[in-house]
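Quick check before the chapter quiz. The format below is the same one you will see on the exam, so make sure you can read both the input and the output lines.
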Amino acid sequence: MLAKRYGANEEKAEVAGILHDVMKESTTEEQLEMIEKAGMTITPLEKSQKKFYHQISGAAYAKAVLQLDDTEILDAIRYHTTGRADMTLMDEIVYLADFISADRDYTDVDVMRRKVEESKDQGLLYATSYTIRSVTEKGSILHPDTVNAYNWIITKYFNTGK
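Here is the expected output.
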């Protein structure tokens, strides 16, 4: 739905959407083995926080097991929870779709859905802001990719560095 609305390749978005959580229920060991098998890297910060594993291991699975070599799809899987600076349209679509999927029931999910309906840019800003607030309120580690995504969104879509 989002790919169609915002002009992304619908087939690629469907593949990325289906695969984005493919490793989410795997053990820590299985995820780390998959990342290694695919020759992908995991930073020390990511290695210290298991919540970051599944997006990396999911991309690794698509690459190593499914032999998928489409960077656009692999990156959308790889950054679907943290976002990043310079997101492609596919990255943005999968990131937002994960936030508003039908199974989501977090606080503000209805607000998030309205923001995405309003505009992709508003959805991206709200999603990254929500993540930063939520993670910092819990006293958890915030992935630098999320901070970089927020700053990039503000600069690119809202033309401000305030």
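If your answer matched, good. The first helix runs from residue 2 to 6.
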